[in-house]
Design brief:
248 residues; mainly alpha; Helix Hairpins; 2 domains; 4-stranded mixed sheet; 74% helix; 5% strand; binds zinc ion
Length: 248
């Protein structure tokens, strides 16, 4: 930090800007690292909520099917009781017509029993299918809960680990800024905001701009190395420096 004091020369200004860029890039890095985890945690929580709804619905459906089975079982018991009653009544009939009428009633009850048995069988099959589906949702739910727990721990850890570093870097960034003239800071912030990677000051790498990789003519590279003035990339407008400036 002591390197940034009185910034009269272009070289000092460039060095200060490059230094500020490095600090701000580290802050960006921390925020990117943390930035994706809360989204992952949120996605998992949403998925778990969806699975909860699915599990609840399946349980309700299965309960409904079981009620259907119970109703048919009661229906069978009822029909069997009626058959017993009608059979007894046949002993006391006065004529053949009454006997036949009771026979018809008995046949109807037998059909009722047959129908209920078929419904019970079909419903049991549905219960089996729904139970399979429910078990799948439950095991998926359990796996997602484990994932969520891991992600939440990771996030808490990252916040704990990087929180202090981020605060320190923010302080350094704030301390650096007043040493650089406002005109340059404004330009720096404007360029930084216009690029997703937040790079406003870049080094020349392999004869190219480190931000957009556009070629830099040899004469310009010489000027950049001289640190006599602030030079912008003609392709992307970023401020160009050479790596060496930090070591001077
Ligand atoms: Zn460029």
């Amino acid at each position: 930090m002591s390197r940034i004091q009185e910034l009269h020369t272009a070289e000092d200004k460039l060095r200060a800007l490059y230094h500020l860029q490095k600090i701000d890039s580290k802050i960006d890095e921390i925020r990117t690292l943390r930035g994706e985890l809360p989204i992952e945690v949120q996605d998992l929580e949403d998925e778990i909520e969806g699975l909860n709804t699915r599990i609840n619905n399946s349980e309700n459906e299965i309960a409904g099917l079981q009620e259907t089975i119970s109703n048919h079982q009661a229906n069978i018991v009822n029909a069997e009781a009626l058959i017993v009653r009608y059979t007894k009544q046949q002993d006391n009939v006065k004529n053949n017509r009454e006997f036949e009428a009771l026979n018809k009633e008995i046949e109807i009850q037998k059909l009722e029993i047959e129908l209920s048995r078929k419904r019970i069988k079909d419903t049991f099959r549905d219960v089996e299918l729904k139970t399979n589906y429910l078990q799948q949702a439950q095991s998926r739910h359990a796996a997602k809960m484990r994932d969520l727990e891991i992600k939440k721990k990771e996030l808490a850890q990252i916040i704990e680990e990087t929180g202090k570093e981020e605060q320190q870097l923010l302080k350094e960034s704030q301390v650096s800024r007043p040493h650089i003239e406002q005109r340059l800071i404004t330009a720096y912030d404007r360029i930084r905001a216009s690029y997703r990677n937040g790079l406003a000051v870049v080094a020349v790498e392999r004869d190219s701009c480190g931000g957009c990789f556009g070629k830099i003519p040899p004469q310009r590279q010489v000027e950049i190395r001289q640190h006599k003035k602030i030079i912008l990339c003609e392709h992307c407008g970023r401020i160009l420096v050479d790596e060496q400036i930090e070591e001077d």
